[in-house]
Design goal:
Length: about 425
Amino acid sequence: MSDAPARNPDHGVYLWRYLLVLLFTLVGVAAFSFWANPYRLFSPTFESAWNRIKPRPESNITTVKLLNAASAAPRALILGNSRAEIGFDPEHPGWGVLRGRVYNLAIPGAGIETVRDQFRALLDRVDVDTVVFAVDFQDFVLNAGRVSGESRDLDIDALRRKERVSALLTLTGARDSIRTIQASRTAYPASLRHDGFNPLFDYVPIARRDGYDVMFRQRLSETAANYLRGRKGLFPPGESDSSEFQAFRDVLRMARDHGIRLVVVTYPYHAQYYALFRELGLWSDFEQWKRLLLESVEENVAAGAVTVADHGFCDFAAVSAPATSVLEPTDASGASHWYWEAGHFKKALGDRLLAQLLDGGEQPDRDFGACLGSDTIDEWLLAQQQRLQEFAFADADALEQVRTALSRAHAATR
């Protein structure tokens, strides 16, 4: 046997080997993420069929869309939440000469204050000509905030640096890079187009599997529960204004100050939503909301603002033929031409809205929606009341679904 002493392990060598392996791994992951470019934050030099379709970001979609909009330098913007993101197509022919220079900046789950902050940040970088500003009743009537002077100043350069590092060196960036490759090999990917539009391909197999009737019922139950949980009212208790209306007026003012043509539109919900508002005792708030929006728009126009096609406020939250379309519960393939569920309309209905709204569109269909002034809104709102009553009488099943959803939501909150 050898009497030579045992050699102590060289921990320094092991540490260096570990650091080298870690370094090469990080470099490899960063190179892969740079090539996949899941958030379109790098030059598309290496774009191919493998990475052309980008996955829809999850945790950082608000920042990604702002950075992409700044890079695209659009002449027209679509502002709003998920309803606008999946419904209003920047490639619609009604955009005319602006087509190809339109970006859909609508953010899922975004409140009106987020819309305001992003719009302000972009105006420092982009020469915008036209804005379609879509507003949601729920953003104003649930948990209305008190007026304050607070707002977020977004530094686009700092955000871009942060997101680029995150894309290259974090697990989220690596995961979304892998999702980029998967998207090119998936028939219905959860993707985001280069112009910010969400085609919602991933909903197609869900609708085929579950059926639209199930999707409508699920959304209705979720919405009923949200309304029951939240504090309802256009203003906080004891107040006559809210942070949401303040942010809304800020967007109007910024557009006016920059000479931007802007039109405010309400979303074309399914009539189940209107029945829900009535059952919750919110119909008068719904009407007052529209009056207050119009009042702010007309005050902005009087101060020198310019509008789209001479329209400042257009109401598509109407009890129209598409909104009262009846579903066939047994048909899972294509029973709903206009809606995914009661709160989210399809591109087909968004196309119809844009055609009526933008220059060169079809003749106005006042059953579907109307651009209003202080001299026409009373008659319009009265007509909507009558149509809702007719809908409740003609489609008892839909009304019963609303009441059932509310009853279950009440029971769940006790």
